[in-house]
Amino acid sequence: MARNIKVEELLQTPIEKQRIELVERKGIGHPDSISDGLAEAVSRALCREYISKCGTVLHHNTDETQIVAGRSSPKFGGGEVLQPIYMLLVGRATKEFEGVELATESVALQAARNYLRKTMVNMDLERDVIMDCKLGTGSSDLRDVFKRDRVPVANDTSFGVGHAPFSELENIVYNTERRLLTDLKSRMPAIGEDMKVMGLRDGEDIALTICSGMIGKYIDDLDSYINMTQEMKIYVEELATHYTERDVNVYINTGDNLKTSCVFLTVTGTSAEMGDDGSVGRGNRCNGLITPNRPMSMEATSGKNPINHIGKIYNLLSTQMARDIVKQVPEVQDVYIRLLSQIAKPIDQPLVASAQIIPKEGTSFEKVKSEAEVVIDDWLSNVTKITEMVIRGELNTF
Amino acid sequence: MARNIKVEELLQTPIEKQRIELVERKGIGHPDSISDGLAEAVSRALCREYISKCGTVLHHNTDETQIVAGRSSPKFGGGEVLQPIYMLLVGRATKEFEGVELATESVALQAARNYLRKTMVNMDLERDVIMDCKLGTGSSDLRDVFKRDRVPVANDTSFGVGHAPFSELENIVYNTERRLLTDLKSRMPAIGEDMKVMGLRDGEDIALTICSGMIGKYIDDLDSYINMTQEMKIYVEELATHYTERDVNVYINTGDNLKTSCVFLTVTGTSAEMGDDGSVGRGNRCNGLITPNRPMSMEATSGKNPINHIGKIYNLLSTQMARDIVKQVPEVQDVYIRLLSQIAKPIDQPLVASAQIIPKEGTSFEKVKSEAEVVIDDWLSNVTKITEMVIRGELNTF
Amino acid sequence: MARNIKVEELLQTPIEKQRIELVERKGIGHPDSISDGLAEAVSRALCREYISKCGTVLHHNTDETQIVAGRSSPKFGGGEVLQPIYMLLVGRATKEFEGVELATESVALQAARNYLRKTMVNMDLERDVIMDCKLGTGSSDLRDVFKRDRVPVANDTSFGVGHAPFSELENIVYNTERRLLTDLKSRMPAIGEDMKVMGLRDGEDIALTICSGMIGKYIDDLDSYINMTQEMKIYVEELATHYTERDVNVYINTGDNLKTSCVFLTVTGTSAEMGDDGSVGRGNRCNGLITPNRPMSMEATSGKNPINHIGKIYNLLSTQMARDIVKQVPEVQDVYIRLLSQIAKPIDQPLVASAQIIPKEGTSFEKVKSEAEVVIDDWLSNVTKITEMVIRGELNTF
Amino acid sequence: MARNIKVEELLQTPIEKQRIELVERKGIGHPDSISDGLAEAVSRALCREYISKCGTVLHHNTDETQIVAGRSSPKFGGGEVLQPIYMLLVGRATKEFEGVELATESVALQAARNYLRKTMVNMDLERDVIMDCKLGTGSSDLRDVFKRDRVPVANDTSFGVGHAPFSELENIVYNTERRLLTDLKSRMPAIGEDMKVMGLRDGEDIALTICSGMIGKYIDDLDSYINMTQEMKIYVEELATHYTERDVNVYINTGDNLKTSCVFLTVTGTSAEMGDDGSVGRGNRCNGLITPNRPMSMEATSGKNPINHIGKIYNLLSTQMARDIVKQVPEVQDVYIRLLSQIAKPIDQPLVASAQIIPKEGTSFEKVKSEAEVVIDDWLSNVTKITEMVIRGELNTF
Fold first, then answer.
1. D324-353: per-residue pLDDT in tens?
2. What is the extent of the structural domain holding C198?
3. Which of the other chains make 3 or more beta carbon contacts under 8 angstroms with chain C?
4. Does the annotation flag A137 for ligand binding?
5. Each residue of A244-299: pLDDT tens digit?
6. What is the CATH number of the domain that holds C205?
7. DSSP alpha helix (H) spans, A219-298
8. Is residue C104 part of a domain?
9. Which of A82, A110, A114 sits opposite D102 (nearest CB)?
10. Residue A252 to residue B282: CA distance in whole angstroms
11. Which of A333, B120, C128, C254 has the fewest CB atoms within 10 Å distance of its CB?
C-alpha cells in the first residue's frame, strides 16, 4: 500500500537567519534527565528480560519515573546527604507469559540502580537514594501486537517530530554538556552531572548560560571553586569556536554570590539532593535538546516500549529521517518531519508523513522533494530497525 | 531601565497556508491533565493559605504530581474500580514562617481531593483513589524574593513562549473538548472527562480523531453506546462549522471493535483507572493545546508558584502578550513571543523579549513593530498582574 | 477422632491474692488500636465481598496496618493538623476467583475510611489522613482450605491463649475506657478516643493512671480543661466502686504541666496526629486488655482471616472457652486455656487443648475437670461458630 | 529516695512441673524478626550518629518497621525474586540540634541496608528489596531529658517484665534456632534464616516443630532436600540432649508435601519474599522467646531509644535483674520481675519494682527476699548501664 508521504516546501526564515534563537540542554544529572535515564534503562532491561525468557519483547511502558528531592548539606571538601532522594519507578509491564511469571519489578529495580551507579558516580546508593517501584499490568493483553512476523500496529493516535541539521547554537549547547562531562570532567571531577546549558543567539551574539552543580568534596575552598568555573568557561569558549564564528560569551553559575560564599555546591552532583524534583519527559527531546524555535513533540520518548509506542518510535524515527535527508540531499537547508499515526494501523503506514523543507538558496525544490520522499519511504519500510537500535542502546532518548 | 525587546518580521508560510497542521488537546480527565489540575489546585490553595496566614505568598512549587494507574472492570450499566488509582502530590513548600508552622500537606491534600471531586464527578473518592503527598521544603529561604514591594527576581534562567491567534484547527480542537464536556455532557452524562482530540489538517481537509473514555453506568448496551458516539460525531461536525469552511471529518474511538463489543468504556471517566499513568507537564501547554507546528516550551506551567517561577509566568505572560498584540494590532497575521529570563534578575527585565511577527499581506511591518513593542512593554511593566490572575484562578494552565 | 484435651489443676496464687497486678488498656483511638481496628474492618469487608461475589470467604490476611504519625498544632478552641497521618494498609488477599477479578484494594480502602469516619469522629478525612494500601496476593491458592463442607485446616503451627474471669482490676481498666467513650463522652465531647488506662493493684490499693488526648476545639481554656479532667476523675472513681471495694486512686494526664499550660491536647482525638506511630498487634489482646500477670499470645488477632488463621481463631476461641467454663462450672476460680495447632491439621483437632484451672477453695478438681473438658470439646466441635461471629462483627479483636 | 521494691513469694506450680508448656522462637530471618532487627539497627546507628555529631544521644524512636512481602519463584538449584520485598522504616528522630542538621534518614537507610546485608546473606539488595523510610520528628523537644548529668525521666507510664531461669524447653527452643544458623548453616548453607521453632512439652514429652525456609540454590533436588531436613532433625535431637533428659521429637517442615514436591523453598531465606508480611514487636520478646506460660510485655523492645523509653529499658532491665537474681541467689527456683514506670519520674525510681519468686523446695523465702531486693536495687542504681550496653550492641532485643 502506498504511504501517505507529503513533502512540501516551507517558506520560512532559516533558523540561522532568525534574529533570536533559544536552545537548552539539561545535563544527564538534572533531575528530569535522571528520570528519563531511569525510565529508559528500565525499559531496555525489560526488553532484554522478555527476549531472554519469552523470545520476544512483551508489552510494557515505564515512562513515568518520579523523583522527589532530598535534603543535603554540601560543603567544600565534603558534605552529606541528609535525607535520601526518593525515586519512584512507575509504569506498566507484562508480568506473566504462557504460565511463566516474570520478575518485572526486580528487573526494573536492578536496572535502575545499575543505571544510577554508572551515571551518578558520586551518589552513594546505600544512603543517598530510596528507589521505589510501582509497576502495574497494562490495560489489555497486547501480546499479538508484539509478534514479530508482521509490522506492529500503533498503540495510539499520536505523532513524532524531528528536524535536521542542528544549528550552530544547537551544536554548541549539545556539545558543551557532552564534552564537559566526558572530557573535562575526567581531569576535573568536581563537575556535577546536573547541568543546564541555556543558549541564546541574538543575531550574531551567542550567550551560553551554564548552571552546573559542582561537587564539594573535590573542591578545597572558594578560590579553588572560582578557578574551576573559570577553567570551565575557557574550555567552553574554546569548544564553541569549533562550531561558530560568532561571538560567544559564557556565563557559569550566575546565581552565585561569591561574597557570601553562596555558590552552587552539591554532594552528589545533582540538585535532586536538595529541592529539585524531577520527572520523565519534561526535559530534553530525543535529539538531546529543547528547541522552542523548532517544532517539538510533548511525548516522552524515554521508557516507552520500542515496539509499538508511537510516542517513542515516531520521535526517534522522524529525527533519523531528518538527519538522513540532510546527509543524502545536500540541497536541503532545514528539514522538519512530522509523523502522525492512527491507533491500530501498522506503524509503517502513518496517517501522514509530513516533511517541510527549506531548500538552500538557488536549488530546486522538486529534486529535493523526490529524494526526500525516498528517504522517508525507506525508513518506513524499515521501521522496526528503530526498535532494534533502541534495544541495543544505540539511540539516545534525551 | 529600558527593556531588551526585539520585534522582528518572520518570513514564514502562515499556519493556515502550511500544507500539514497537527493540533492536539488532552481533556481535563486525561491522566496527564488530572496531574496538571491537581498540581495547580494545590498551588492555588497554598497561595491562599499563605496569604491568609502570613499576608503574602511564600515559596512553593508543586508541579510534580505522579499518577499511577489502577485497575478496573468497566461494564455497560455499571462496573467497578478494582484497584484504586494512586496519586502522589510532589513538590516543595515553605512549612514555617516567623515561628508559625503551616499546614502545607493538609492544605495540599484537601485541595487535591476537592479538585478531583469537582472535576471527575463519577470518581468515588472513598474507594477509587489513594491520594498521597510528599512535599519537601525548598532549597533555601526565598522569603525575600516574595516581598511585594518590588518586582520579584527570576528563580531560574528559563523561557516561556506564546502565540496568537489560534488557527482554525486550534480553535476546533480546543472547543471540541470544551463543548463536549461543558455542553453535550450535561445531557449525555456518559461522556468521560478523559478525552483526546487529535486534529490533522491536510490542506483543506480536516480530520478530528477523538478518543473518549465513555462511562459505563450511563450506557445500557452496545447499541446505546453506538448511538451516543454517533450523536457526539454529529455534534462535533456541527460545532466545527463555526470555525471553518474546510471539510471536517470526525472519528470517534476508532480503536473500538464493535464485533467483539470491545469498546472504550470506563467506570470513572478516566483511563487512569486502568493502565494509563500520568504526570504534570506532559500534556497541554498553557494555551490548552499541543501544537507541533508552533514553538512550544517544555516547562510545566501547572503547580509552579506564580510569584517568581519563570516556567509558569513567562509562558502565561507570552500567551497574553501574543493575544493582546493580535487584538490591538489588526495588521498582525501570526505572532510568536519568546521571553528569556536570567536567574536573579527582576522578572520585568527579561534577558530578551522576542516577538516574531508575520504581518498580514500588504501591511507595513514597521507600524506593527512599534505597536507590538508597546504591548510587550506594557505587560512587562505590569508583570505581577499575571500573579494575581493566577491566584484568582483566572488563567488556565493546561 | 478423640481430641487431645488436657485439663490440669494449677497450683498458683489466684490473681486477686497476688501482691502486684498490672493491667493496661489502650483506647480505640490509640495509634495501635486504630491499626487493629482498620485491619479488622478491612478483613470483615473482604469477607463480605467474597461471600457476596464468590459465595465463600477466600484467602486473605490484612493484619499489618502501619500508621505513621503526622504533625499537628492543637489549641484550646481549635487547632489544626499540619501534616496528615499516613496509614498504610498491608496484607494479602485473593484477587481473582474463577475468572472474576475482585476489587480487593478498593474494598479495603473504602472499609478503612468508613471505619475511621465512624470511630474517630473529629478526624477530617479530607485533610488529616492519607490512606494508602498495599495488598499482595498470598503465597498459594488456599481455595480448597476455604471450602465449607469440612472443617478448615490450620494455616500454621501456632497457639492461642485465653483466661477467665476478669479480675477486679481487669474489669475496672476495661470499663473505664469503654464508659468514658460511650457514656461520658456523649456529654463531654472533648474526651479523645486515644486513651491509655494503666491499672496497678498493690495489695489492696488500686492506682489508675489515665492518659487521655483531649480535643482542643471543645475546650475553651485551661480552666475548662482542668474542670473536665476533674470530672473524668470523679466519674472513674465512681465507676470503680461497681467492681471493687478496694481503694482506687485515679490520675489523669499526670504528664501535664499546668503552669506552662502544657497539657495533652489534640486536634483529632489521637496522638497519631503528632508523633505517635502505630501498628497492628502491639496493643490490646483480643479480650481488650494487656495483662502481664496472665498468659498472653503475641499473635495479632485483628485482620487475620477468620477461616483458618490460628493466630486469630484460637485466641478468640480460647477466650470464649474460658468464659464459658467460668459461667458453667461455678467451682472454677481462674482458668487459663492454651490451644496449639499443627499446620495442615483440622482446626477442631488441636495438637493440644490445655486448660489450667485453679478451683475455688474447698471444691473438687475432678468434677471441675470433666465439666471443663465438655465445654472445651463442645467448642471445638463448633469451632466454625467463631468464624461466623467474627464475620457478623460479634467478637472484638482488641 | 528509697525505691518501691516489692518482693513476694509466688505460690505456683514451677514451670517444669506444669503439665503443658509452650515456647516459640522466630528465627532472625522471620519477617517479624527482620523488622525488629532493622528497627534496632537503625536506633543504634542513630545513637552513634548523635553521639558523634552532638556528644549525646538525642530523642528518637524507630520501632515501627513494616515489611510488605514480595513475590518469588523458588526452585531447586536457583529461583528468583519476582517482586521485591518492600520495607518501610518508620519512626521519629531529632533532625536538628543547635543549628546543625542531622542526616537521620540517610543514616537510617544505610544502617538498615547494612544490617540486611549482614543478616540475610542470600538476599540481593540490588533487586530483591525496596528500602523506604518515613522518619518524622518527635512530638516535642526532649533534649533536656537526654542530658546525661542526671537519671533520665520515663517517657511513659509503662512496664517491663522478665523472668529467669530458662526452662529446659526454653533453652532447647532458643538454642535450636541459634545453633542451626550459627553452626550447622556454616556447612549446610541451604538453611534459611527464616525459621520458626515451636516447642510443646506435654508432661515428659517434648515436641519441636520447626518450620524452616530452605534456600533453593543450595539444594539440587528433592532427594537432597529430604537428606538435609533429615540431617537437621538429627542435629536438633542431639542438641536437645544437652538441655534435657526428656523425650524430644523433632518435626521439620511438616507442611511439606513430598509427593507433589511442594516443599518450603525460598530464594532468599525468608518467606517475606513470598506472602509473609512482618512488623516490629510481634515476634520474640527481648529474651529471644515467646512464652505464653510466662508473663510477657506487649511493648516492642527493638528500635526504641535506650535513654528513656520504658518499653525498651524496663524489659531489658527486668530480664537482667531476673538472671542476676538466679545467678546470685541459688535458692531461687523461678523469678518474675515486673517494673512499672510513671511518666516524667526518674527511671531509677519505678512506681513499683515487683518480684515474684518461687523458692526452691526447702529454702527460706525470707533470705531469698532480701538478697533479691539487693540485686534489684543495685540494678536500679545503675540503670543507665542498660543504655550503654544497648548502644554497644551487647543486648539482644528479640
1. 999 999 999 999 999 999 888 999 999 999
2. 14-24+167-277
3. B, D
4. yes
5. 999 999 999 988 989 988 999 999 999 999 989 999 999 999 999 999 999 999 99
6. 3.30.300.340
7. 222-240
8. no
9. A82
10. 29
11. C254
For B95, residues 6+ apart whose C-beta sits below 8 A from its C-beta are B101, B102, B104, B135, B137, C82
Residues of B with Cβ-Cβ distance to A209 under 8 angstroms: 157, 342-343
CA distance C49 to C55: 9
Find the DSSP H helices in C27-79.
31-54
Mean per-residue pLDDT of chain B: 94
Would C218 be classed as within a structural domain? Answer: yes
Assign 3-state DSSP to chain C and report helix, strand, coil percentages, each to 5.
35, 25, 40
Q: Distance from CA of residue B365 to its chain's centroid? A: 32
pLDDT class for D75, splitting at 50, 70, 90?
A: very high
Position D149 confidence tier, pLDDT thresholds 50, 70, 90:
low
Position D343 scores a pLDDT of 86
Residue A143: inside a domain? no
Residue range C180-200: mean pLDDT, rounded: 97
Q: Which of D10, D12, D92 is the closest to C275 by Cβ?
A: D92
Domain assignment of residue D394, yes or no = no
- The cell numbers describing B275, all together, are 493502565
Q: What percent of chain C has pLDDT over 90?
A: 89
C137 annotated as ligand-binding: yes
- Angular region, C66: left φ>0, alpha ψ -120 to 50, beta rest: beta
Mean of per-residue pLDDT scores for chain C: 94
Closest approach of chain A CAs to the CA of D182, in angstroms? Answer: 27
- Alpha carbon distance, N-terminus to C-terminus of chain A: 33
Residue B201, pLDDT above cutoff 80: yes
Q: What is the dihedral of CA A180, A184, A185, A188, to 10 degrees?
A: -130
Q: Is C351 helix (H, G, I), strand (E, B) or coil?
A: coil
| Chain D residues near residue C19 by CB distance under 8 angstroms | 6, 8, 354, 356
Nearest CB among D103, D106, D127 relative to A109 is that of D127
Q: How many domains is chain A partitioned into structurally?
A: 1
Q: Is A340 on the interface with B (CB under 8 A)?
A: yes
B80: contact with C, CB 8 A cutoff: yes
Query: Is it the case that residue A148 has pLDDT exceeding 90?
Result: no
Tell me the three-class secondary structure of C228-296, residue by residue. Answer: HHHHHHHHHHHHHCCCCCCEEEEEECCCCECCCCECCEECCCCHHHCCCCEECCCCCCCCCCECCCCCC
B113/C126 touch (CB, cutoff 8 Å), yes or no: yes
Sheet containing D5-9: give its strands across. D5-9, D352-359, D332-340, D159-164
ipTM of the complex: 0.94
Please state, in angstroms and rounded to a whole number, the distance separating the CA atoms of residues A374 and A329.
11
- Annotated binding-site residue? B63: no
Count Cβ atoms below 10 Å from residue B290 Cβ, excluding itself.
25
Across the interface, whether the CB atoms of C130 and B127 are under 8 A apart is answered no
For B106, which of C84, C101, C103 is closest by C-beta distance? C84
Rounded to two decimals, the pTM is 0.96
- Helix/strand/coil percentages in chain D, nearest 5: 35, 25, 40
Residue B358's contacts (CB-CB under 8 Å, 6 or more residues apart) are B9, B10, B11, B12, B14, B332, B333, B334, B335
Nearest residue in chain D measured CA to CA from A103: D82
What residues contact residue C110 under an 8 Å CB cut-off, 6+ apart? B124, B126, B127, C45
* Interface with chain D: mutation pick from C13, C21, C59, C64, highest number of D CBs within 10 Å: C64
Q: How far, in Å, are B319, D34, D117, D130, D278 from residue D121 at the CA level?
A: 59, 13, 6, 16, 19
Q: Is A297 on the interface with B (CB under 8 A)?
A: yes
Whether residue B226 contacts residue B258, with contact meaning beta carbons closer than 8 Å, is answered with: yes
Contacts of D103 in chain A (CB under 8 A): 73, 80-83, 127
**A132/D126 Cβ within 8 A:** no
Q: Quick: pLDDT tens for A76-102.
A: 999 999 999 999 999 999 999 988 899
